[in-house]
Amino acid sequence: MSNLKQRLLSWMHGHVFAGDLIITLVIGVLLFGVTGGITYNPGLLFDLKPSMQMAWEAAMLIPLLIRRWRPQTGALLCVALTLAHLIFGPCLLGADILALFMLYSVIVYGNPKNTKAFIILALTIGLLASALIAWTMTNGPLLTGGKVHTWSSWNGSNPNGVMVTEDTLGSIYTGTSMSEVAGMMAQYMLALTPIEVCIISTIVMSFWHRARMATIRMMRERNEAIAARDQNERDIAALAERARIARDMHDVVAHTLSIIIVQSDGGRYAGTHDPAVARNTMETIRHESERALHDMQRLLGVFGGSPHADYNDIDNLVEQARTVSPDIRIQRSITGTASPEQLSEQASIASYHVVQEALTNIRKYAGPHVDVHIKELWNNGLLTVTITDNGHGAAANIDGHTPGYGLLGMRERIESAGGSLQAGPRLGGGFEVMATLPYGGKEPATDETGEQYASEQSESCNTTAISSKAKLSDEAITRNIAVSISARIPNQPSEQTQETTQSAGRNYRSNALQHLRITAPNLRDLLKSLKLESVELANTSNARSSNWVERVSAWTQRHYVLMDAVGALLLVALLNPMSVSLFSDSPRDMQLSRAIATCCVLALAVRRRFPETCALIVFVLSVVQLVFLGSIEVGHIVASLCALYSAVLYGREHAWRWTGPAAVTCSALMGLKIAADQHGYTTLFDAIAASVGLTKPVSATASSGAAFFTGVMYTVAVLMLCAGIMAWARWARSSDSNALVLQAREEALMAEQEKQRILAANMERDRISASIQAEVTATLNSVINQAVDGIRMLDRAEAQGKEPTADEISTAFKAIGEQGRAALKRMRELLGVLRETGFSDDAHAGSASELQLRPAAPLEEQLQRVSR
After folding, report:
1. Is a pLDDT exceeding 90 seen at residue 412?
2. Looking at the DSSP assignment, which residues form a beta bridge with residue 386?
3. What mean pLDDT do residues 658-676 have?
4. Which residues have C-beta within 8 Å of that of residue 683, sequence separation ≥ 6?
5. Which helix (H) or strand (E) segment is 67 a member of?
């Protein structure tokens, strides 16, 4: 049924001419039926028979056929036919009302650049038509000397074309003075003033609907773009997960291996003649390797990595660097009032890793006897961290690999937190890294140079978390739709929602629910939830300038809750003075009935914001009204039908499952109430009480059969009306012609797309985690084994009561260092595979097959391909 409905809607959207043809035929039948009895309708030049009038009516239907297919052509044709019949045909046709539809169509569906010209043309034609009609009705046809005839109608008993009477209008042909003729024409033109009013009203309605259609069209295109971007978003999520794993691997493993290399090089000289120093150094190497192995296993686990160190751990990081590399002199200074509690979790973690990576690079590249200065500037909502040294800078390369992944990961972390990073050699020698981070949860801040950092910057760099080399093809993702992938996959510590995936039948639960804080919404958030933000986006995205009608239309669409509230108040003010009850009742019950009807109408103020709640309130009040009160207010009926329509249109997808039984219940109660009234009972409750013996029955005013038949008829009639309302609402819901429905569909698409991104990220992690864990385990275990072998050598020498020789200690440290360098090189290869494979953008379109995301080959196979 759903597919049939979608095909029907698609056919109607693609075949507007066929739809307009059907509409034209229906209007033609109605028009001929109404105007077929007109027997007096003179023209400006001639006195025409009714058959000619029908021909002109049929000709005026032609523009209606192409009003949406070719709106401007249809409008011009309508103008031509109108001028022709004003001069050569009857002065007034029933089909002239169709000119308003043509004006509406050319404004809504035509080229907006020509709107002003068509409006001027319509107003001019309206004034001309008023003048010509006034002349004709006052003076008669020009070529007949004012003589007019009354003809038999074409569908009457007399044959068509038979003249019934003949008369001459009292005009200039009968000696009437020009002043009197002018007065008579002025009266006619005054009587025809509604023509211009109708034209102006049509113009306003057209502009109003054009703004609404612009919103609908934009939201349709946005929904289609979201649906079409689904696979690309999954690819982006998979790439982001690969980048995250590579970044964390670098921070955990590569950092540890660099410490091991430095320790082994230092121990090779310092521990040569001091077995105690050699043992402590080897124990440190083994401990660091085991810790890195443990962290890596947690990093690639189902529930994500271990809690990250943050800004508060920078002191420990500096002390560790001083211990590992005593020849590196590190100073740390803070300018301003340090406020780490104001940093977001992501910014705090990023600040730690900036210092960590900078110190790692200094140990690897700067050389011995280096001075390092870590400067922090807290000012105006920004934290600026600068790490400078006076070493060799970017000129060193001790690993036999091309550096860059550490800085890349550092930049990604900073940008994902909404900040910026600059890194490069200093003019006077050495290297400098400067990171700027905004406080979390604040408004855009301005630094000392006046540059503004928008809080939305973090959203614009979601895709840069994949690689600085990857220029994604989906750069056109709008900011209001873009979602931070790395912040939403379940293995991130900042995740605060529970997501369920279907990978391997396991549930992925965020371990950060304990950090969830429930706060009351402020007034701004509350007011924002009562607005339709997408309408404003549609209005401002329009390249042409909008007029005041379109701006008001967009404003009313956006503030739909306010407009519903105003409409409900106006409806109450309109219905109360002219309140009409369908049944007689006592004055007290009448007042109660009106109060209930007023409550039902006021509930319509939230009919689009809380549609099902509104329908439930109206349903409960309707049951009370039908059971316990005698009269039924017209306002109550209007509110009930409107609430039912709103619940089906704006409510949940399956709201009809409860609104349908509710409508059946009210229809049955209506029938029973009618039947009870036929028996003489004031209320349905009185009839129920009499039937169970609680009260004395009253004498019936109608037979049981007649009362039953009347009740059934009312039940069926009300049920059919409710069914028609629900069908109308379902049709409107599926026709993609309502902004609120499209907004809800967009949110559903985004939620589903986010789930798919999470699933893709989890699947990508599962796919490569086993191979990575094997690689990391083998890499770190090789270092651990070398350190253990060195410690055993020292233990054997101690057990034998002798000191190991300097060559033995040097050889042991040399083996550890060589193994560490080999492990670091292997890790670089592994990071390269994760960073450089799997791109789906245009920049990598010509890459080799091993650099493509689809099909996703096992990681080991990718490593083998790259190493060839």
Report:
1. no
2. 375, 434
3. 93
4. 627, 628, 629, 630, 673, 676
5. none
Residue 271 CA to residue 279 CA, distance in Å, equals 8
Residue whose entry in the numeric block shows the structure tokens 């699947």? 763
Predicted confidence (pLDDT) at residue 542 exceeds the cutoff of 80: no
Query: What DSSP character marks residue 491?
Result: T
* Close Cβ partners of 575 (under 8 Å, ≥ 6 residues apart): 597, 601, 633, 634, 635, 638
Residue 115 CB-half CA count within 13 A: 19
CA angle, 839 as apex, 838 and 843 as ends, to 5°?
A: 150
Compute the distance between CA of residue 776 and CA of residue 253 in angstroms, rounded to an integer.
8
Beta strands in 118-196 (DSSP E): 147-151, 163-168
pLDDT at 866 over 50: no
pLDDT band (50, 70, 90) for residue 724: very high
d(CA 673, CA 681): 9
Which DSSP symbol is given to 552? H
One-letter amino acid of 844: H
Cα angle 632-634-638, degrees, rounded to a multiple of 5: 115
- Nearest-angstrom CA–CA distance, 104 and 201: 10
Please give the Cα distance from 534 to 551 (Å, whole number): 14
The model's pTM is 0.56
End-to-end CA distance of the chain: 56
Is the pLDDT reported for residue 418 higher than 90? no
pLDDT at position 525, please? 65
Helix or strand holding residue 455 (H, E): none
CA distance 240 to 261: 30
Mutual angle of helices 275-299 and 230-249, in 10-degree steps: 170
Average pLDDT, integer, range 209-223: 84
Pure H helices in 275-344: 275-299, 314-324
For residues 803 and 275, is the Cβ–Cβ distance under 8 A?
A: yes
Residue type, 745: R
Record the tokens describing residue 536, joined without a space.
């404003």
What average pLDDT does the chain have?
74
CB 658 within 8 Å of CB 616: no
Q: Which amino acid is at 545?
A: S
Number of other CB atoms surrounding residue 593 within 10 Å:
25
What is the structure's pLDDT at 584?
Answer: 62
Q: Which residue has the higher pLDDT, 866 or 214?
A: 214
CA distance 708 to 716: 12
Question: Cα separation of 601 and 112, whole Å?
Answer: 39
Percent of the chain with pLDDT over 70: 71
Q: Identify which has the larger pLDDT, 850 or 641.
A: 641
3-state DSSP percent of the chain in helix, strand and coil, to 5:
65, 5, 30
Calpha distance 111→109 (Å, rounded): 7
Parallel/antiparallel/unpaired status of strands 382-389 and 431-438: antiparallel
C-alpha to C-alpha distance for 298 and 279, rounded to whole angstroms: 29
pLDDT score of 458: 32
* Token duo for residue 584: 């007689």
Spatial contact of 633 and 670, defined as CB atoms under 8 Å apart? no
Of 166 and 220, the structure prediction assigns the larger pLDDT to 220
Token pair listed for 325:
């590399």
List, in sequence order, every beta strand (DSSP E) within 156-259: 163-168
Q: 126 is written with which tokens?
A: 């309206």
Q: How many residues does the chain have?
A: 868
The burial class, CB within 10 Å (0-12 / 13-18 / 19+), for 457 is middle
Q: Is the pLDDT score of 520 beyond 90? A: no
CA 128 to chain centre: 49
Query: By the 8 A CB rule, do 601 and 568 touch?
Result: yes
Rounded CA gap, 116 and 373, in Å? 68
Of the CA atoms within 13 Å of residue 815, those in its CB half-sphere come to: 17
> 9, 735 in Cβ contact below 8 A?
yes
Closest residue by Cα to residue 285 from 797, 813, 792: 813
Is the pLDDT score of 19 beyond 50? Answer: yes
